[in-house]
Amino acid sequence: MRYIGNKINLLEFINSVVEENNIQKGTLCDIFSGTTNVAKFFKNKGFKIISNDFMNYSFVFQNAYIKNNKIPNFQRLNKIIDKPNIFKVINYLNSLKGKEGFIYNNYCIEGTKNSNYKRNYFSTENAKKIDAIRDKIEEWKNSKLISKDEFYILLTSLLEVVPSVSNVAGTYGAFMKINDPRMFKTLMLKVPNLIKSNIKNDCYQEDSNKLINNIFCDILYIDPPYNNRQYATNYHILESISVWDKKIMDTKTGLRPYENQISKYCKKSRCIEAFEDLINNAECKYILFSYNTEGIIPYNEIMRILSQKGDVKIYEKEYRRYKSNCNGNNIKSPLKELLFFVKVNS
Ligand SMILES: C[S@@+](CC[C@H](N)C(=O)[O-])C[C@H]1O[C@@H](n2cnc3c(N)ncnc32)[C@H](O)[C@@H]1O
Asked: Cβ contacts of residue 171 below 8 Å, gap of 6+?
């Protein structure tokens, strides 16, 4: 999934640091879990996982991939779907007729043509499909035709496919002025790759700085935002599809209320204090902190804070990414991904 700070391409790098420091098993807490890619990787390796993020869509992913340990059978849907299983249920949702609901009325051109703001996040067809699928999942949940796990799995399937049919340059902070061809692909849910396990894992939707006071783990993996882009505003439509309370503000991009989801880690004036508080309250054997060379917490502050817990080792990986220059040309600029490893003093 397209997500700022997604560590999907850095999993081997993170794993190499864990292996080099001879940590084979135990509990890993992914306290800023986002897509859950890091938590999933270590769950697959046999670690017990605690995951957390203050966004609801992430909590949905965590429940589907981390807390849930089996492929559910959707038996309660047998009056609607003959001999149901996960594939048949996904097919059933994919074949629903689109409807004009919250997404259609607020986030596509046709549905917003008479509103204060015309918004072009989705094609008419996909907006209606999202409404039909999300309403059906909610209806099944409310009438207890699906279990909690089944609810989170179906919702994950929807949330993961929405970015691939959105008319955005990566985030929902704005829609594209020129239509991105991906918005005209037909939205099709896929069956999520669930992870079977016998280990009990725990998920949270809390502020990391609060949750830290209740967590004991072996590895505390910390991957906070590294710049001023708030996740709540950049992923507001995913959050709305996830929560489905149909709340919207009358703004150009149709933001949802987000006053409880403002991250201190995105503020230059608050990030050091937040990071120091998190580290001071951490009860763990090892700290693994992901950041990069463009992060707003200065390097010397990171070192000062982490060294209070133990010796700090730094691992780095160069990343090449494209950045637009002022002429509209693309130039390559180097970005280093950093991993700070601390063996906490006992
Ligand atoms: C860099 S992303 C994590 C990416 C994740 N490791 C992945 O691979 O997808 C940072 C995450 O921190 C979350 N976040 C920001 N501030 C938070 C806070 N104070 N408490 C909990 N979560 C927070 C954001 O919602 C976002 O998902």
From this structure: 2, 4, 229, 234, 235
Q: What is the C-alpha to C-alpha distance for residues 291 and 323, in angstroms, rounded to an integer?
A: 19
**Cα 216–Cα 218–Cα 219 angle in degrees, nearest 5:** 110
How far is the C-alpha of 96 from the C-alpha of 268, rounded, in Å? 46
- Answer yes or no: is the C-beta of 3 below 6 A from any ligand 1 atom: yes
User: How does residue 318 score in pLDDT terms, banded at 50, 70 and 90?
Assistant: confident
Say how many Å lie between the CA of residue 205 and the centre of ligand 1.
11
Calculate how far, in angstroms, residue 53's C-alpha sits from the geometric centre of ligand 1. 6
pLDDT digits (tens, 9 = 90+) for 72-101: 999 999 999 999 999 999 999 999 999 999
Atom of ligand 1 nearest to the CA of 208: 20
Residue with tokens 């990069």: 292
What is the share, in percent, of the chain residues with pLDDT greater than 90?
Answer: 95
Helices 86-94 and 124-142: angle between axes, nearest 10 degrees = 130
Sign, Cα dihedral of 230, 191, 134, 201: negative
The mean pLDDT value of the chain amounts to 95
Q: Which domains does the chain have, with CATH numbers?
A: 1-53+200-225+263-346 (3.40.50.150), 70-194+232-255 (no CATH)
| Ligand 1 neighbourhood includes 5 CB (under 6 angstroms) | yes
d(CA 170, CA 172): 7
Ligand 1 center to residue 103 CA distance, Å? 25
Residue to mutate, 231, 270, 292, 297, ligand 1, most ligand atoms under 8 Å from C-beta? 231
